[in-house]
């Protein structure tokens, strides 16, 4: 019999270089569901791996025996310039890293102790950057060498990108709270107004920012992203404003900052609420005057950049309590947009799981026929404190662990499984006590106990039958009677 799955496509490859085995393993556990992870304990070992493997991202610790991370990444840049380079270290190494960040071509600097979600997002962005760089190189070559007919096809690809990242790419139901937000975006996007997007982590604030960019007159220019909460002030200033040769020890050549990279386009500043008051003053000047001064430069530079900021904090409260500058807040929040959490838009979940499953199948190179009814019920009932990001991770997990044609409830984590009985079921115990004949109430209660037990035991029918004192035949008959036998790909019999 032929396999129901496609041959697995190779995942993006990441090389982790760290001399501490425990740190290596922690990084591998965080990344290995979405990436092919290689590990090395030294620059010498990493060099050997890079000579035989095709890598997209290199994640390197700064402090290693023999050779520092920055020194190794400088060599990597000359031999493998397309590999996206990320360095990870503590605040104490920031001066050395700033000095070498240009020569090494470092894409991002991550601080210890790192958070799994932040690290995973950084590696995802780096892998996407690698893919986009390769795609841009290919499209540029096609545009230079192709016939007019082929050139038209390349331009059509660009239009498809605009549709994917514009308002049409935002998944929402007709009655979703995102509907009015999308209407507002359509109104304000054509105008160069600063937008402040607030909402919990994982709600899709960056996607909304991209939609604004691709609905604006700047859509054919750069969309540049910086996480302000990931860097100390001195590194953030160097990243955004750049520096001149000789600005500090190790600054051997000029470095262009992200404001210059975004000139004519859009700069998205995520986690703006994490910045210090001192840095807020410098950012305010850029927004007010449209100019900034690179480190070590005697003259300011002028740029034309639209700034979109995002935060998961209540900035109005931060202003009242003196932790965020009031003048900067009003400069950023000309158009404030609040993204509701996923628990406040349950009508979007069925559409989201369908789209995220398609994305996950592409990422893992593995296909399936969809979800069982029980799995969909649990996904819809859970409150998703991590919002869309948590939902995406749950679907990736289900697909990776699946062995059948459909994704069953048994593939979900215990906390999501338990959500199926958290008061969203038609057989809620409160309802059982107030309606129907005695037999109807007893039947409803029995159905509820059966479903709670199956969910808790991950749909293992043998264990459920033993716990409830039923034979397997008796349990199966009750499941058929109450319509609970739909999870054909579920747990063990």
TrEMBL record:
Ranges where the Response regulatory domain occurs: 13-127
A biological-process GO annotation: regulation of DNA-templated transcription
Domain Sigma-54 factor interaction: from-to ranges: 171-400
Record's keyword annotation contains Transit peptide: no
Modified residues (4-aspartylphosphate): 61
Keywords for this protein: ATP-binding, DNA-binding, Nucleotide-binding, Phosphoprotein, Transcription, Transcription regulation
InterPro entries from the UniProt entry: AAA+_ATPase (IPR003593), AAA_lid_NorR (IPR058031), CheY-like_superfamily (IPR011006), Homeodomain-like_sf (IPR009057), HTH_Fis (IPR002197), P-loop_NTPase (IPR027417), Sig_transdc_resp-reg_receiver (IPR001789), Sigma_54_int (IPR002078)
MF terms (GO), sorted A to Z: ATP binding; sequence-specific DNA binding
One Pfam short name: HTH_8
Name of protein: Sigma-54-dependent Fis family transcriptional regulator
Organism of derivation: Zoogloea oleivorans
